[in-house]
């Protein structure tokens, strides 16, 4: 999974560091450091960190399907009649 943080937009709120400490960390009081190639096992934590950023400074490729659940067998997925 590839991450990009707009460090010009980041304000150092550190919500990402609290939610995904294996990927994000504060260096000093305001400087964010992160792993741009996060492991697949961090997917759920990363999705929460991206959503929690108050200034939407984090972009992550490959998180689109985190909250999607497969439709149950026999369940209609379309509401068109």
TrEMBL record:
A Pfam family of this chain: Fer4_13
Cofactor: [3Fe-4S] cluster
Source species, domain of life: Bacteria
Keywords for this protein: 3Fe-4S, Electron transport, Iron, Iron-sulfur, Metal-binding, Transport
UniProt cross-references to PANTHER family, sorted A to Z: FERREDOXIN (PTHR36923)
Listed name of the protein: Ferredoxin
């Amino acid at each position: 999974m590839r991450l990009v943080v707009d460090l010009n937009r980041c304000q150092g709120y550190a919500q990402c560091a609290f939610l995904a400490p294996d990927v994000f960390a504060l260096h000093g009081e305001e400087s964010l450091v992160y792993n741009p190639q996060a492991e697949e096992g961090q997917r759920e934590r990363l999705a929460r960190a991206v959503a929690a950023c108050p200034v939407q400074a984090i972009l992550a490729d490959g998180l689109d399907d985190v909250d999607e659940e497969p439709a149950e067998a026999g369940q209609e997925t379309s509401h068109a009649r």
